[in-house]
Amino acid sequence: MAVSVDLIDALKRCLRAQNMTYRELAARIRMSEAAVKRMFSRRAMSLQRLEQVCDVLDVGLAELSAEAARGRKAMAQLNEAQEQALVDEPTLLLALFLTLNRWREQDVMGHFGFTPAQWTGLLVKLDRLGIIELMPGNRGRALTARNFRWRADGPMERYFRHTLLTDYFADPFDGEQDALLLLSGSLSIDGVKQLRQRLEEVAREFDALLARDATLSAEERVGVSLVLAQKPWLLQLFNPYRRSRGG
Fold this sequence. Notes:
CATH superfamily of the domain at 5-70: lambda repressor-like DNA-binding domains
Oligomer: single chain
Strand order of the largest sheet: 1-2
CATH class of the domain at 5-70: Mainly Alpha
Distance between the termini: 81 Å
CATH architecture of the domain at 5-70: Orthogonal Bundle
Order of helices and strands: HHHHHHHHHEEHH
Helix content: 40-55%
Structural class: mainly alpha
Radius of gyration: 22 Å
């Protein structure tokens, strides 16, 4: 049985949203990369192959059909009101994190102190905010890209600077899965630009790893946060020793 063009186009959008390449998909479904590219470019796919790809992406056929009907791109950024709602209600932010990372309801119940009714209520709120779509079986389909970017100087970034940053650095980075590098020096403008490009590459690699591990169980994954930052900066404690530019 052949699959409709709309479903295949929707599947391509799901691949992009998870930052999964044709090469990665080919390895997961045991096909050559060329065959996968040909399958998508010709929009020719059997129902059995469609189900295989959906399993890799952890996307149900009902979700894929809804995506095909909607035909809209995943959001790369939330609006101001959506971010503010997440800042105002931390449990809502947690629910979004778990939904983006494809936690199933039974895993949420096993790891967090929510009742089924409370969990459903959080998903309903996220649905009403337009951040996820609540699907049958109490599954949330994210309408954002998996690792979307927060607004520059938006509610979440301000909340992180004023509140979460202290929490992030409160404990020592001495665990097996921890890393903290404090680097400082003087670079040319071209060197600064090159460094920024490398940071953006690291961010893209992080996105790709998220997509690769998305189908693993909750027990096989650990929450990881990266803070990638760069700016011209000198410690304030050095200020008393600086010469005035006008002097």
